[in-house]
Specification:
With 60 residues, this protein is of the alpha+beta class. It has one domain. It has one helix and three strands; from the N terminus they run H-E-E-E. A three-stranded antiparallel beta sheet has the order 1-2-3, with no helix packed on it. A hairpin with a 2-residue loop joins strand 1 and strand 2.
């Protein structure tokens, strides 16, 4: 299991106004779970360094 999972769990349970209290991790989590942030940008739910321009299914 990657780092910062406990933060993601708490962030999903708290109201939106409390998310600033538990920001994404500043280091690579080591086990990214991707979501589409913009047209050609995918981000990790758990860490700030987790970002890519290719879909998660492709090898990038």
């Amino acid at each position: 299991m990657g780092r910062y999972r406990w933060r993601t769990t708490l962030r999903s349970a708290l109201p939106a106004r409390c998310m600033t209290l538990l920001p994404k991790g500043s280091h690579d989590c080591g086990d990214h779970d991707w979501y589409k942030s913009a047209e050609n940008l995918y981000r990790c739910y758990h860490c700030r360094p987790g970002a890519r321009t290719s879909p998660p299914d492709s090898a990038a």
